[in-house]
Amino acid sequence: MARPHHPTLWLLPLLLLAACATATERTSRDAFDELSRERRDAPEVELDGSYQAYVRYAMAHSPELRGDFERFRAATLAVRPARTLPDPMVSYGVFLRTPETRVGPQRQRVSLQQMIPWPTRLTHAANAAAHAADSAERRFDARAVEIRRRVAEAYWNLWFVHQAKVVEREEREILSGLEQTLRARVEVGQADFAQLSQIGLHISRLDDSIAGLDETERQLSAHLLAAVGAPGAEHAPMSDNEPMVAPPAQSLASLLAAAAEHPRARAMLAMADAAEERSQAENARHFPSFTIGLDWVETGPARMPDVADSGKDPVMIGVGVTLPIWLGSYRDREEGALAEASASRADADAITLAVQSEVRASLAALHDSARRVRLYRLTLIPQARTTYESVLGSYQAGRAGIADILLADKDLLELSLAHARSRADHAIAWAALEAATGRPIEARAPAEEAPAVAVTPPADAPAATIPPTRATEPGSDSHE
Questions:
Q1: DSSP H helices in 284-380
Q2: What is the largest CA-CA distance in the chain?
Q3: Angle (nearest 5°) at CA 432 between 257 and 147
Q4: How many whole angstroms separate alpha carbon 281 and alpha carbon 20?
Q5: What is the pLDDT of residues 70-118, one digit of tens each?
Q6: By the 8 A CB rule, do 366 and 301 touch?
Q7: Which of 119, 302, 312, 462 has its CB 3.0 to 4.6 Å from that of 104, i.e. a possible disulfide?
Q8: What sign does the CA torsion over 51, 57, 59, 62 have?
């Protein structure tokens, strides 16, 4: 006759099921390990003034990003404890009145108990923790996207101030040369002092503007260093490389589809999955939990001589079952978790609508800034330069006054600054578009542009003695 199985052996599969890691948990752990290796193996970055160097430095040193990484670590480390069985309990007791048995007096007892919840309660709790870790990872990705956008905004605004200083300093040199020429004419009676005063007034205004740009540069430099996590640095180096001006290679439909997968939206969807797993874990409360116990009683020797099994210690195995009777409470917890899941999915939908709206707005700003860059570079600046040279030649011939020169020079200065501003706006709009889609965007090579049609100066105009120069010349595109 076959020996019957021990009544507690059927609990062993439940123990094994509760102790095994789920696929969701393994995926979460692998994602964290990969991100840890990437951050650990990333090469040290020096701020050489380029935009990409600032971005890489921010990815490595931003305290906000480091905080989200540690939250991702904490969420990952919370997965395994969620599926761990409760700690076993050991209890000890001493008989104050020793019961006498045939084999001897029982004097003390040691008990060991292990509570085993219904297995799906542990697996769903572990899955919920794993989805929460996935949400933490998506929040880390979203933070990285936002930091890139902030770095781009701070960097290109600072780049514009740097370019504006270069343009205005060159403008001051031009006016200083014109002032020297005019001063020589005043000395020989070919010009009056009022004209010379007009030049001096414009130079003083430029000096004030340059001083203001110096202060603005210090402020924006501090903002840029704080954005990348280097507040201790004294100065933010800046490259002269101009931002790329090109349309995105993806269509609007592709950009909107990418925005629908934004890390912020995916973080909320992961939280919804976590809440649904918690609902399943609460549903498992409707099923009983089990307790396995082992008791050992220390027994002294029997008082009667020659008693069989004298002093033999009894050992007992017991099984307990909880009775789930608070069904209404369990149901409320389950439905509450489902309500949290619905709320998180609604938040994900709201985020998707917001970022898709940002995609459309950023794309419009990108196209508008590219249009302005082409307009200034190919049309307005060449026309303004030709006009300036023509007015300067007319002045040499005695057909124009110094006010005409200053007006033409002012137009050229403002257009040069607007050209640089439109380039910075284009780079900022590009970063905003990437932030809205939540991923890098490939640029399409711009079509070859026709050369600008310049205004031809009069044939009798003499050559200008003070040729204008500007930091931003038409057709001088450089890409970083």
A1: 327-375
A2: 145
A3: 105
A4: 16
A5: 999 999 999 888 888 888 999 999 888 888 777 778 888 999 999 988 8
A6: no
A7: 302
A8: negative
Angle at 465 between CA 462 and CA 467, to 5 degrees: 110
CB 64 within 8 A of CB 111: no
pLDDT tens, residue by residue, 253-295? 999 999 999 999 999 999 999 999 999 999 988 888 889 999 9
Tokens of 41: 């193996």
Rounded CA-CA distance 89/108 in Å is: 17
Rg of the Cα trace of the chain?
39
Asked whether 319 and 290 are in contact (CB, 8 A), the reply is: yes
* Residue 85 contacts residue 18 (beta carbons within 8 Å): yes
- Note the pLDDT of residue 468: 40
Among 109, 99, 105, 96, which residue's Cα sits nearest to residue 311?
105
- Tell me the average pLDDT of the chain: 83
Q: Residues in the chain with pLDDT < 70?
A: 1-22, 190-191, 309, 446-480
Q: Let me know how long the chain is.
A: 480
What pLDDT sits at residue 407? Answer: 87
Residue 114, H or E segment: strand 104-116
Beta-bridged to residue 116, according to DSSP, are 290
Q: Which domains does the chain have, with CATH numbers?
A: 13-84+117-287+324-437 (1.20.1600.10)
Judge whether 117 and 320 are in contact, CB under 8 Å: no
Distances (CA, A) of 344 to 116, 128, 330, 338, 348: 32, 14, 21, 10, 6
Q: Enter the tokens of residue 197.
A: 């005063």
**Phi, psi of 98, rounded to the nearest 5 degrees:** -70, 115
The CA distance from 242 to 454, in Å, is: 24
pTM over 0.90: no
**Residue-level pLDDT at 191:** 65
Which element (helix H / strand E) includes 155?
helix 119-187
**Cα–Cα distances in angstroms (integers) from residue 388 to residues 111, 363, 398, 403, 460, in the given order:** 100, 35, 15, 12, 15
Cβ proximity of 429 and 443 under 8 Å:
no
* DSSP code at position 380: I
Scan for tokens 């990285």, then name that residue: 144
- Residue given tokens 């020297």 in the structure block: 180
In the chain, the amino acid numbered 403 is: A
Q: What is the dihedral of CA 456, 461, 463, 467, to 10 degrees?
A: -60
For residue 397, the 8-state DSSP code is T
Whether residue 387 contacts residue 408, with contact meaning beta carbons closer than 8 Å, is answered with yes
